[in-house]
Description:
Number of strands of chain A: 5
Order of helices and strands of chain A: EEHEEEHHHH
CATH superfamily of the largest domain in chain C: Aldehyde oxidase/xanthine dehydrogenase, molybdopterin binding domain
Largest sheet of chain C: 7 strands, mixed
Low-confidence stretches of chain A: none
Strand content of chain A: 15-25%
CATH class of the largest domain in chain C: Alpha Beta
Distance between the termini of chain A: 55 Å
Radius of gyration of chain A: 16 Å
Structural class of chain A: alpha+beta
Helix content of chain C: 25-40%
CATH class of the largest domain in chain A: Alpha Beta
Shape of chain C: globular
Oligomer: heterotrimer
Number of domains of chain C: 3
Structural class of chain C: alpha+beta
CATH topology of the largest domain in chain C: Aldehyde Oxidoreductase, domain 4
CATH topology of the largest domain in chain A: Ubiquitin-like (UB roll)
Mean pLDDT of chain C: 96
Strand order of the largest sheet of chain A: 2-1-5-3-4
Shape of chain A: globular
Helix content of chain A: 25-40%
CATH architecture of the largest domain in chain A: Roll
Number of helices of chain A: 5
Largest sheet of chain A: 5 strands, mixed
Mean pLDDT of chain A: 97
Amino acid sequence: MSRVHVSAVVNGEPVEFLCDPTQTLLDVLRDQLGLTGSKEGCGSGDCGACSVTIDGRLACACLALGAEMEGCSIGTIEGLAQGDQLHPLQKKFVEAAALQCGVCTPGFLVASKALLDRNPDPTETEIRYWLAGNLCRCTGYDKIVRAVMEVAAEMKETAR
Amino acid sequence: MQQTTYAAPRSLDEAVGLMAAAGGAARILAGGTDLLVQMRAGSLAPGAIVDVKKIAEMTTIVEEAGGFRIGAAVNAAEIGEHDALRRAWPGVVEAINLIGSKQVQGRASAGGNLCNASPAADSAPALVAAGAILAVQGPKGRRQLPVEKLHAGPGRTMLERGEILVSIALPARPAHSGDAYLRLIPRTEMDIAVVGCGVSLAMEGDTCVAARVGLGAVAPTVMLVEAAGAALAGSRLDEAALEKAAAACRAACRPIDDKRGTIAYRTKIAGVLVKRAALIAARRAGGH
Amino acid sequence: MSARQFKVVGTRPSRPDGADKVTGRARFGADWNMPGQLVGRVLRSPHAHAVIESIDASKAAALPGVKAVVTSADFVEQENRIVPAGEMQVNLRDVTRNVMAREKALYHGHAVAAVAATTDAIAREALGLVEVRYRVLPHVVDVEDAMKPGAPILHDHLRTDGVEPRPTEPSNVAKRIDFAKGDAAKGFAVAEVVVERRFRTAPVHQGYIEPHACLASAAEDGQVQLWTTTQGHFQVRGFCSRLLGLETSQIRVMAAEIGGGFGGKTVVYLEPVAVRLSQKAGRPVKMVMTREEVFRASGPTSGSSMRVKLGATRDGRIVAADATFALQAGAFPGSPVGPASMCSFACYDIDNVKVEGFDVVSNRPKVAAYRAPGAPISAWAVESTIDILAQELGMDPIDLRLRNAAKEGTKTHYGPTFNRIGLVEALEAAKASEHYRSPPRPGTARGVAAGFWFNVGADSSAAAHVGEDGTVTVISGNPDIGGSRAALAMMAAEELGIPYDKVRPIIADTASIGFNFVTGGSRVTFANGLAIINSVREVIAECRRRAAKLWEVEPDAVVWENGEAKPASTNVGTFEPLSLAKLAGMAGKMGGPINGHSQINAQGAGPGFGVHVVDVEVDRDTGIVTILRYTSVQDVGTAIHPSYVEGQMQGGAVQGVGWALNEEYIYDRNGKLENAGFLDYRMPVASDLPMIETIMVEVPNPTHPYGVRGVGEVPIVPPMAAIGSAIARCTGVRMTNLPMSPPRLSAALDAAAPRLAAE
């Protein structure tokens, strides 16, 4: 199969890669760019473990082709922390025990950040519906939702 | 091993040309939320993938003729963020915004949802109720068809080889009209509709003067249930009229037993949803 | 045991693996790669039941890019021998056949052959070139159907165990077990109220988000390295060594971080295959299951057919109980019918009990453990029946349970007598909860259920190494599936009297620490905790000896307090306390490194009890159930890290919600699984649920230095019956089959409408 050459931006850094036309963005991230933080839970867009942002929009990396990423800006879990500073969501997830096994955590963090970027003051219901595309089997979602609510409240305080 | 090609044409003509050159082995890629799933499952192995997201007409929402022309490849999240569209056609927008998770919403398109032709497609019943008209471009040029004429059967459309769904036109909204879409799913999110019902109606005071009812997931294709619309039109949306519309929907159902629902259940729910959706549409029309 | 004042235990520090897990740095099973690695893929049976007449893989092997092919011929035949696998028992003869089919394909998805190739595409193409000749046989999936005379037989050699005289004809009933206490017939004779119902449950899957994955690298000298996502890497080593004819010391297994297990990762599927492929190819082989493969070919739990009968006197005393539990084992014997039977009435002090259980094979994947295996299934039946009894007696459902609750000294129907337990405390806490004391909102109703799990101890090896600056590494050998490594570090810090952040826990590979039984049975905090505390006590003892030597006093004149060696009293003399850091700095001059280790078979695991309270609303027109409020109450022994204990209580409850309302394996008439994905295998999503309130009741386990009880499994036992009871009290309709999905509930409501209208 003749491969497609793609130039894109990942977590603010320019990247170039060659991919098969049928290779997903998730495959490219994990197998070619060494970014294994995004996980494959299902490969069919039903679990959200591969959540990334594409041009600022929350998406499943398993539902995009690497070839489609020409000129796009992609955000993954690896880009959440700034240098050695964890994002408030990352800190809160650890403090609030919002993860147990941790495999769904990258997806939840990317999705939660996408939510707070759009809606800095979500209600519990809004959070739950926004995160409905992220499956967690360990926590029952309680501590995850609380963590997002607390970060939203704290970021609102800081913004004041 | 098959060689799949990928191309991202910048014009509709180029896209039509690529489709023609592939001789039926090409697939349109908009959001990819159906195409990639089917490729991954092994049920599809396209010879050519034609990415339409660089074609302006397919990726824009334009207000025209008092209504809207929605590019077939506009993603659902963008549709949800279009204030004017949402105000005018809340049922259509909420239906499109029910396609999958927030992640899927960031990519999925109404055009893709329609062309995938699942009988349970969320966008279909509300668009049918709205009387949407589709613009299609192919080797023989452009044509239009009402959305309820698009589906031929599960997974099949009436599009001819090489044709591309370009945009979806919603008519100007009469005053005091409203629409709504409801679906029954076992959870609160993330499920394919067991039944989907779209109702669009116009009110004059307390009386409904016009109504269209679209019903999905209860037949091989989405249905325009004319008898249900007729039962609502001219009524005050009282319980008797609603029950008549429900009976019409139940009668129109030709559902199957599958892993998502039984014939009996789907039939019953079709009646339940049309009543509930009609009342929401009426409330939005400001007439109840 | 008097309430001990803890400094670290009971607080909520950050977990040691937190930073890695929130940044994506942590490496799960599919995140490990080696240069030159090949992709391994498995060919799976398209038939639910078939004789494998021949396999010709020559064309596949000849495809350019294919470096190795394996079939059952590549695995050593195993003797008929039972070994523990997590909380279940498995037969090695069956294990090797489940890993790769031999004589027969026994379920749709059963592994038949495997290839390793340079790319995934080539591997998949190669699978298409493997020629398998099947002779398709009639199949049977449902547990009741499999028990019927004339049902298709899976194993001609299988005779029902536990039946006298021993049967001569083959059967799908692998085993019959029974437990008895007192005389059930006499008990029922004096009962004033008798309730009896039949129940069914559908098979469900553990639903871990991370598919099975491993990376095997076999060297030319016979040594093997294996990275895998597993609940027990020593278990993996053991299975691989047996199935492949290797010595355990030749295989070194590294446990990757694990993305959920719940019992489903206590056995092997890909690992022996990957190792064998790697041996044949001379290159590393990586194998990752797709989600579809996980559903089709890993180890979901049993479906069941059950009957429960209870007899009581009008004052609420249960005088007799009688139950039959038939659980599916899948393709090979070994369902959790034993624990299901044992846990069934464990919450109650009943004088006369009779329980009969059947282990039934059928053409589905071999079941693996799923969080308190068997107990949630029998609890669905028993706890629902208890609720029916409460309704018949006009008694509050908690009061009925309190009236009959098991206590310290109660002899269970399956044999042991309870030590100090916390069921009564949990029931009383549930009754006193704000949730229970506030009446359900109009149009909603409340359900209650209790649950029990034994919890286990088993083998643990651990070590504590003191670094030259006095910071400590504690080493254990159990994959951390729920936050246990934080708890282990906390117990070590508590015991040593040093701050939590001076202790780092690691999970060592099979070559670097002694044997550990699997992570399961809610045992890690208990058993590894014990081993780590013992290791740390060795460190402390050594420190005291060294201080004593320095001070020229007897060791028992030296005490250890707050991380320092001190004279036991002023009589001993006046000496400056010696901190761990100080002693560590002098270690070389005082006899060498300061390490402690411990290897135990932990005894005295304390059983756990849970009581769940749930409020629901039912949309009568659609059968949709909304969980409005949920409280999970449990006796947790001592909550080492309360946040992670709460997490277990919440996570288990939500798995139970899914099991109650929507999860089930749906088969077509060819025995093929129809819903092998997250779209139609419907697990709860965030919008389905409210917050899950937790009430931790601490009744310390007297046999553990910190009072630890296992907590992970109990929370999945009560939810289904609690929800079923709430639905019954809301609608007047008692569901007896799971799941209570909208189409089923709607049909039941419609069927009951005439009766309810008449009432």
